[in-house]
Each structure stands twice: as C-alpha cells, then as structure tokens.
Amino acid sequence: MAHPIVKLVAQRLALGLLLLLAASVLIFVGTQILPGDVAQAILGQSATPETLANLREELGLNEPVVSRYFGWLFGVLQGDLGTALSNGQPIGPALGGRLANTLFLAGAAAVIAVPLAVLLGLVSVRYRNRWPDKAISAVTLATISVPEFLLGYIVIYFLAVQWRLLPSLATVYDGMTLGERLYAIGLPVIVLVLAVLGHMMRMTRAAILNVMQSSYVETAELKGLRPFTIIARHAFPNAIAPIVNVVMINLAYLVVGVVVVEVVFVYPGMGQYLVDHVSKRDVPVVQACGLVFAGVYIGLNLIADIVSILANPRLRHPK
Amino acid sequence: MPETLLEIRDLVLEATSYPPGEPPKTVTLVHGVSVSVEKGKVLGLIGESGAGKSTIGLSSMAYGRGGVRITGGQVLVNGRDILKIGPGGLRKLRGKEVTYVAQSAAASFNPAKPLMEQVIETTLISGQMTKTQAEARAVDLFRQLGLPNPETIGKRFPHQVSGGQLQRVMTAMALCPKPDLVVFDEPTTALDVTTQIDVLAAIKRAIRETGVAALYITHDLAVVAQVADDIMVLRHGKTVEYGSVQQVIEAPREDYTRALVSVRSIDHAEKPEAPPLLSIQNVTARYKGTNFDVLKNVSVELPPGQTLAIVGESGSGKSTLARVITGLLPATQGRITFAGRDLSPNLAGRSRDDLRELQMIYQMADVAMNPRQTVETIIGRPLEFYFGLRGAAKRQRVQELLDQIEMGRGFADRYPAELSGGQKQRVCIARALAAKPRLIICDEVTSALDPLVADGILKLLLNLQAEEGVAYLFITHDLATVRAIADRIAVMFKGQVQRYGSKSDVLTPPFDAYTDLLLSSVPEMKLGWLEQVLETRRMEAAGN
User: Fold this and answer.
1) What is the mean pLDDT of residues A282-303?
2) B406 Cβ partners below 8 Å, 6+ apart?
3) Which residue among A16, A127, B367, B506 has the highest number of C-beta atoms inside a 10 angstrom radius?
4) What is the mean pLDDT of the segment spanning B27-32?
C-alpha cells in the first residue's frame, strides 16, 4: 500500500488542475462574452459593418462559444497562447520575457521578505508585549497601511531623489549582469517587501503564540531551556503549516499584485504588460495573462497545502 | 543523619485574575505551607482540585503556571533558596536538578519531534554526557520502566505510542539527567485502571532503583498510598494533615482526611430482576467511513427504576452504546425496544415522546450548558419544549426542580460560570429530570468531579431514582462508583459485552480473565496493595 501522504498529495494536485480548468473557463467567459462584441471593441465607433464582419470572421467570432473555448484551451495546452491583436505577434515569447521579469522582481522581494518576516515574528514572540514586539508591530503595521503607490513615491523621493542611492526607474534590458539588474530593481523590491512584511510577520507571531500555549512548551520551560530555543525548536516546527499558508498567499500577491508597483517604477513585467493590453482591448493577451496569474496563484497555494501535509508528523509518520 | 533535599518554608502563592468589566482580583492560592523532603524519599501531596497541590509542586521549580506568583516564603533545594537565583540559575535547576512529569504526557511531548530527541535534550544541553551515552542511558531507563522495544521506541513520534507508554517515556525523560527531585503531577490520572497499575509499578520501581526523591501529586489517596513515604493533605491552599503514609491512611487525625479515606460510603441494595424497560438485542454499530464494528452483538436489559452500569476502559464502546441508544449513531444491526415499543435506530424516526422519555447527562457539565443562559432558562427549556409551560407555571416548576436537586431557589438567576463543578452537574440533572424521563443515560457524570462532590451527586441520583422511579444507564470506568449504585452491570471490552448480570453475580468470582484484570487493578486504600496484586499476578502467570 502506498504511503498515505502520496494519496493526499495526489489528491491536492488533481484538485489544483481542476481549479485551473475552472479558472480558464471563468477567464474565457469574462473576456469573450461579457464585453459584448469584441470586434466592435477593437475597431471602435468608426467601424463600418463590413470591416466588423471581416474582423469577426478573422477572429472566428462567428463560431459557437463552446468550440471557441476548446479551440483556445487546446492551443494553450500545446503551448500556443494565441496572437496579440494589437501587433499581430505571438503572445508566448513576449509574455515569457515579461513573466521572467516579474518572477525576478517577486523572487528578489520574497528572498528578503520571507526570512525577515519569520525572524521578526520569532523576535516578537520572544519579547512579546515588550518594546521590541511593539516596535516591530508598529512599523510593519504602518508600512502595510500606506498604499503601495504612495510608498513607491516616498522611497523614490528619499532614496532616489534626495540621497541618490538607487535609480528611480527600474529599467532592465537584455545583457545586464545580475548585479546591475538587482541594483535596478532596488526600489520596487523595497516597496514590495514593506507591503508584504507586516502580514507575514503578524501571522507568524500569532501562529507561534498559539503554539506557545500548549503543554509541551510548558514542558520545555520546565526543562530549563533558553526562551529562544523553546520558540525555535519546540514552537516553530508546530507552527509551520499556518506560516507557510500565509507566506504563499503573500508570494502569490507578489506575483499577481505587483501591477501598481510595476507601473510606478516603469518596470517591464507582467503587470505593465497586462495594463497596456487592457487599455488596447487586446483580449487574447488579457486572457493569457489571466491564465498565467491564475496558474501562479493556484500553484503557490498548492505548494502551501502540500507543505502543510508534509509538516504534519501524524501524516508523515503514520502509526 | 538524613539529608534534606527540598525544604519549602511558609510558601505563599498568589494569582491575579482579570474578570471582564471588574477591577483585577488578587487571590491567595496557598497560605503559608511548609514541606520538607529528604533524599530518596517520596512525599505525596493530596487534595481536591483547587487545593493548591500542583501549584506547590511547581514552586519547587520556582515556576508559576498561568500567572501564579510566589509572594512569600522560601524554597530551598539542596540548601539554597531557588527564589533568589535568577533566570540563569533557574535554567540550570529546571530539567537537571528538579524535573517534572505532567498529567497528560500526550500533550506534554512536542508532536513534531521523535521521543529520543526530547528525552535526552536537557542531558545534552547540560553537557553531562555525550549523545551516545545519553541515548544508552535513555534506553536503560526505557527498559527499567518496562517499555516495549526499548532500543527503538525512541525513534517513534509521540502519536505513535499509547498513552500509558508515553507516561513512562515522560518518566524516563525526567530521570535521564539524573535529577535529585522529580515532581510527578497526577501521572496516572488520565490512564485506564489496567494501565495505571503498570505505570504506577514502573514509576515506583524507577524511584527505588535510582534513589531519586519525589513529590507525588494526586487526588487519589489510594494511589498515593502505594508510592509515598509521607503524605500531606491539602485543602484550599492550607495543610490539613501531614504525616507518614501509615499514619494518614490508617489513623487519620482530621475529619477531612477521614472523609477522604472513607469516601464512597454509599450502600445500595440491589433491586430484584423485573421485566425490562429498555432492551437492547444483538446491536452492532460502526462509524461512517470505517470498516470495523465498534459495537459487536451487544445485548443488555434494564428494568424500570433500576440502574445498569456499563463499565469498561476508554475505547471499549461504552459511549458509543449511549449514542446508539439515543439514535445519534444508528445501529447497523439489532433491535432496541423501549417501554414495549421498538425504537427507530435513527433520531429522525423517533417520536417526541421517545425523545422526552430518554434523557442524557454528560461528563463535562460546563460544555453541556449554554454559558449565556441562566439556570432558569436552561432548566425551563425542556419544560417549554415538551409541556408548553410558560411564565409563572414554568418558573414554579423550575423552583421545584431546584429543590429536588438540593440547590437553593436563588440559583435560578445564576449563569453556569457562577456555579461550581458539582452544581453545574446538578443543573444538568435537573434539566434531564424536567422532561419527566423514564430513562436517563449518565455518561461518566462523576468522572470530572472531586471524590466528595461526586459522592454527593451519586447520592442525589439514588434519591431521585427512589422518588421518580427513573432508570439509569450509567456509563463509567470507575468501579467504586459501580459498586455504589448499580443493580445490574455489563462489563465491556473491545465493543463486546464481556460479562453481564446482576451486580452481585458480576462482582462474585469466578471471573473471566478481563473482568479479573479490571477488578484487581482498582487501587485499594491500603499499604502494600500494589505489591500484593503484582505478586498474585506473577504467581498466576508462573502457575499457568
């Protein structure tokens, strides 16, 4: 008999795929059917009936919705995301480059934010209700409370304009070294870190404090262990599941929610790409972006689920 | 000249509570208690809940649980006052010089770490031994405590080991760093009697062989009589009596101690057999989504106005039987007749009279009542629901019921949080009684109560039975309770009825093997009982 974890993980994966399929239906329905006539939207008020009819024919809009959906879905499954209406180029390569940029930005922010948030959470628990805890809470609360675009302009004003430490525009292009790239995205990374730090830190603190109530933490205290050892060795391993969940939600936010930050810093990522093409009414691009965002979101949450399963000793070591 | 290891002088403990909407209240939990333990001796601290026994025990590690503060007195361990040694000094004391065994080992082990890592943790930190040496010592202790597979049990996780075994592993964890004093805080209370006797024997042997001194905290005088050299009886944070185990058990000086020693004074004459009110025939049941029967072919009968005690250990299916009778878990096979009619296996298929005539009382009275309703609302609800009583008529009936459960009429406006454990259980009894039932299922109703309070509840139940002619199906793991109130007894084991009949028949030898084990495992309030039982068992095993 297979290990029960294999079954649980397989179930989660299957569920994730199902969710992605459902998301693809919603995206398709949302972009194709709700706005009314796509051709009209593309050509605008001045379109003549002939050009409209031609464009509809060209786009295959005369076919039934269901067959259009499956046509699109099979294309996507074969790696063909379709062609952008605005410039006639295939979407795949352009989107790939943008996605790589976004993942680079989000990844850099995550590498700083996740360990920092967990560490600050541990420190908060160690000094709970004393000044380090209160200071950490106050600062992180303040940074999530400020809207990101404002945070963006504040860091631009101080770090780029006043002190000239980092560039205000996050311009990246091919051929940059890693160091140059990291320097270029310095400011957006800072804004993103500040935006997600508070949530993760507070959840880490709450999850560990919850575990600190348990009898085995009292046992550890009565063993004469150092406070930080108790938190790190006895409390933290039992708080991993809730922490991973909140970390993943924030990572998903870093990828999906960077639109505003990318616009502020003119960074060539997915967000900019999406916003540009929404304004051009380029439906296939919007669909492709939606699908990628949905995939990232579902994928990260799937990872959170699987890590939670793996972190549970009862599931990892069955009787 | 014996060396004094632990000396507590005039200890005063306080706690501050913060009731919502009121100024903080400071309560004194322990009023000037003095204790002394010599090297290698065991002192039993005994008392009811709230007597301060655990609090005193933990003060020997200068630890206050949940905001308890040591505000007066001295605690001397090996001659130095540990209240003055600071956090660093305490870290060296705790887990090395003085160690602790908690009531629930299942909750006291970190679920994410294997047992061995936790057992040797302090030994490694203090640098007493290398990892290999510490592990070898742990394995020795596992063997000494009679754990199965001592070599490999350390690799297991807490959830992979049974409750009784975990309690022994925790004892090994406490003994591993070679402490001078171990505080045992109700180490066998959460265990079944047949498990308790083994753990008790293992703890006693380990104490004797390692020569460690111990504070043994329990509410069960019969248990402490088996392991202690001296006993201190505590009540409301004060010493009632302090003396050698022999003196306290055999010649108690104080009334309170005498009451504890002679608890379960109820004498109940068995009623004659009669045609049944409730008849359960060949009932089999299983939980949804499982493939194994929790009840197998159970048949018992209960005449009106009598008490059928269902006895067994945790997991024997006694509470499941209650769920089947009440229709919460429909039986897969078998038949239940009640007052001459067939009861539908499903709750949904039962008439209002079926529901009314069959009431239930639970172990945890405080979670069985809505904390935001007054006693009058709680007791009045069945009056409204079954009899349509309102206003003055309802209030009148509530008052009568309060009289019946021997509580003042003034309690009608109180909330559950303002009642003691025994009072809460009385209100639950009144609520069941309000429906004028013919049968009340009592699921471990006295298990969470102190012995003297439990005794009062049992007396009340017997009086009510005499007045109202109500029958009880009494589920319990406590054989003393069974002796006190049962007319008929069914002994359950692994979902089957092992032995069934009138009380006198069931409790008279010859016994089947399981009933014998169960009956002989119940601690008796006499010195040397533990050795006697173990000796008898060894002889029998050798004889076979």
Assistant:
1) 89
2) B426, B460
3) B506
4) 89
Residues of B in contact with A319 (CB under 8 A): 159-160
Q: In terms of Cα–Cα distance, which of B497, B41, B465, B21 is closest to B268?
A: B465
Q: Are strands B488-493 and B307-311 parallel, antiparallel or unpaired?
A: parallel
User: Stretch A132-156: mean pLDDT, rounded?
Assistant: 90
Q: Which two tokens stand for residue B513?
A: 């093997």
Other Cβ atoms less than 10 A from the Cβ of A236: the count is: 20
**Residues of chain A positioned with their CB less than 8 A from the CB of B63:** 221-222
- Tell which CATH architecture fits domain B39-62+86-261: 3-Layer(aba) Sandwich (3.40)
C-alpha span between B421 and B419 (Å, rounded): 7
Domains and CATH numbers, chain A: 95-281 (1.10.3720.10)
- SS3 label, residue B329: coil
Exposure b/e, B392-407, CB count within 10 A at least 16 = b: eebbebbbebbebbeb
| B39-62+86-261 and B305-329+343-508 agree in CATH topology | yes
Contacts of A224 in chain B (CB under 8 A): 90-96, 122, 125
pLDDT digits over B302-324, tens only? 999 999 999 988 888 888 999 99
**Is this complex scored with an ipTM above 0.85?**
no
- Pairwise CA distance, residues B96 & B98, whole Å: 6
d(CA A98, CA A95): 5
Q: Which CATH architecture has domain B305-329+343-508?
A: 3-Layer(aba) Sandwich (3.40)
- Which residue from B107, B113, B121 is facing A214, i.e. has the nearest CB? B107
pLDDT digits (tens, 9 = 90+) for B162-186: 888 899 999 999 999 999 999 999 8
